[in-house]
Amino acid sequence: MSTDTMVRPDTTTDETTGDDIPKFFHYVKKDRIAESAVMGTHVVALCGEVFPVTRSAKPGSPVCPECKKVFDGLRKGD
User: Fold this and answer.
1) Please, which residues bridge with residue 43 across strands?
2) Residues 13, 47: contact at Cβ < 8 Å?
3) What is the rounded CA–CA span in Å between residue 51 and residue 68?
4) Is 59 helix (H, G, I), strand (E, B) or coil?
5) Fewer beta carbons below 10 Å: N end or C end of the chain?
6) Dihedral of the CA atoms 35, 36, 40, 46 (nearest 10)?
């Protein structure tokens, strides 16, 4: 049985609509966001989507339903 602490991930996305506005923002590991934004490396969202970070979420931004479902299912810290 693992006793690792789960850390709430930040959100980001690369899915865009025709006018360059993201459809959804994804949950990704917080420590990977800056590296991806600077180096162009890809991140993996909780839903499995793989992409480079190109934008950051603002409060009230739409969240990927699959990422939210996975995140809500994660066990909160004891």
Assistant:
1) 51
2) no
3) 17
4) coil
5) N
6) 150
